[in-house]
Amino acid sequence: MNKIKKDKGAAKGFTLLELLIVIAILAVLATVAVLVINPVEYLRQARDSQRVGDLAAVKGAIDLYLTTVSTPDVTAGVLGNAARCTAGATNPFTITPCTVSATRTVDGTGWVLVSFSSLSGGSPLTTLPLDPINDATYFYAYAANETANTYELNAKMESVKFGTDQDFDGKDGGDQPTWYEIGNDPALNL
């Protein structure tokens, strides 16, 4: 019988060239994955989803207020029929003064000038939401007409998906193509 002799000195493992090829392939795959997945865009989409949800919650609270309070006041008695307020630091929508310390309150002194605390069951919101970024570019805005009891809530979208693909900000019925606008004002043009 022939016996195969094993060389006890034979090298075991991978060569340097094989290791370099595998590392290069993994680097290319990782780069392609990051470019395709685009984590920055997913973070923008997450913030835009939060904006849509936040404004929907505030809209629901205002609608509840308008249907349950006998004489609703959508401007908290400020500026008669042209109240505007925002949660942002500086912006073109600010007409009424909103102090930074009070922007989240639900008693009519926050960025939404509706006193939710006057609801018989209590406020549906514990605090008013703020934009995830909340700076001079990205903030929530509120405008109301007390005479008509109409209001509008605005937020600027930042992702490609919400800004262009689904076009939340261009097909919402509002008058500002770069803002997401909801409310009960017929043309959302407050």
From TrEMBL:
The answer to whether the entry has keyword Transmembrane helix is: yes
Stored PROSITE patterns: PROKAR_NTER_METHYL (PS00409)
Decide whether keyword Transmembrane is in the record.
yes
**Protein name, please?**
Type II secretion system protein GspG C-terminal domain-containing protein
User: Which keywords has UniProt assigned to this entry?
Assistant: Membrane, Transmembrane, Transmembrane helix
Membrane-spanning intervals of the chain: 16-37
What organism, scientifically named, is this protein from? Candidatus Wolfebacteria bacterium RIFOXYB1_FULL_54_12
UniProt-annotated stretches for the region Disordered: 165-190
